[in-house]
Design brief:
alpha+beta, 8 strands, binds zinc ion, two-stranded antiparallel sheet, 4-stranded antiparallel β-sheet
Length: 243
């Protein structure tokens, strides 16, 4: 896995910013894997997508991850510092295209959620997250051999389907055991690489644009030329100019 170059990162930032989280993650993947069509990348199961994002993040910004999460008990911002290896799950490769669950007289055939499903569920206001995601992914549901609507599946079967999805695509859900230093509360904090990586890209892009702006004003260089320089060299020029 190679690192994204400065022009590629800025391009992905520009392409992703009008979109919600699933579209942003796709913009990063499209930039790193131009040989695959956006449609192909959008159909990757979420956990497979997240493995790629994690590898891309490691190649681009390194393997250390530092973030803040609010303590659910007292609200204190708790720092989480960990390595890519702490959140990387060994892949169940390749995840099956269609899975099935047989429970409480119900038979359900379903596929794993992908970026299209996440985007559709997010776009629906007040959608019942897990249920609408599941309904989109059910290929066929039946009770005692009679076809039925996925929306009418009992809660126990819905849970079994969700568990089977998680087992087949484990990177889609990552939790970190966390303890609040202020109140001692312990909980499992969810880590979302798509959201985390995008926030970093955004901060990096803002910083880089400021550098391009300052150097272009000072020396009249093009964006292309400034981006081709290493960050280290850009800093040296900015220092020399007293900017
Ligand atoms: Zn706390």
């Amino acid at each position: 896995m190679r690192s994204l170059t400065a022009p590629e990162l800025l391009g992905a930032w520009e392409a992703g910013h009008p979109h919600a989280a699933p579209g942003r993650a796709l913009a990063l993947l499209c930039s790193a894997w131009p040989e695959h069509s956006p449609g192909e990348l959008a159909r990757l199961p979420v956990g497979v997508r997240d493995s790629l994002l994690l590898a891309l993040r490691e190649a681009t910004f390194g393997s250390r991850l530092v973030g803040l999460v609010p303590c659910p008990a007292c609200g204190e911002q708790v720092e989480l510092a960990f390595g890519v290896e702490d959140v990387r799950v060994a892949p169940v490769s390749p995840p099956p295209e269609v899975l099935s669950v047989d429970q409480e007289g119900h038979a359900v055939r379903f596929r794993l959620p992908d970026s299209r499903d996440l985007a559709a569920v997010m776009a629906r206001s007040g959608g019942h997250g897990q249920r609408s995601l599941l309904s989109r992914c059910v290929v066929e549901a039946s009770r005692e051999g009679t076809l039925m609507d996925a929306g009418a599946l009992p809660d126990g079967v819905v849970r079994a389907v969700a568990e089977a999805m998680e087992a087949a695509d484990p990177q889609a859900r990552v939790e970190l055991a966390t303890t609040c230093p202020a109140c001692g509360h312990g909980w499992a904090a969810t880590f979302d690489i798509a959201e985390f990586f995008w926030r970093e890209v955004e901060a990096w892009a803002q910083r880089t644009l400021r550098e391009v702006d300052a150097l272009a004003r000072l020396y009249g260089w093009s964006e292309e030329r400034i981006l081709a320089m290493s960050p280290w060299k850009r800093q040296r020029y900015l220092e020399l100019a007293g900017a």
